[in-house]
Amino acid sequence: MVRGSVYFRNGLELRVVEVVDFVAGHISDYGYTILREQERICWYDPQAHPEIPELRATFPHHRHEPPEIKHNRRPAPGISFTAPNLPALIAAGVALGADLS
Description:
- The structure is a single chain.
- The chain is mainly beta.
- It has one domain (2-100).
- The protein has one helix at residues 86-100, and strands spanning 2-7, 12-21, 26-36, 39-45, 62-64, 73-75.
- It has a 6-stranded antiparallel beta sheet, covered by helices on one side.
- The longest helix has 15 residues, at 86-100.
- The radius of gyration is 13 Å and the shape is globular.
- The termini are far apart.
């Protein structure tokens, strides 16, 4: 299990939790949360939602964002089980900081 945080100069924190299968060479589960002052700005998870057609492009990977953060889900390009996700998450954190400053 990999667990930690990345702190951005724009005041955001990216919390990372990954379960990595080093033998198979992939991520088996994850949770990524971006926060500003302990408030969740968005989070990513791989819980499948086949009933939501808009998420098929990155199934099962998606992002929760405002408004109604728990139920507002969007595709998560750049997030997968087979490649490092940190570059896409850092880009999202930088973009969010620019949007929320």
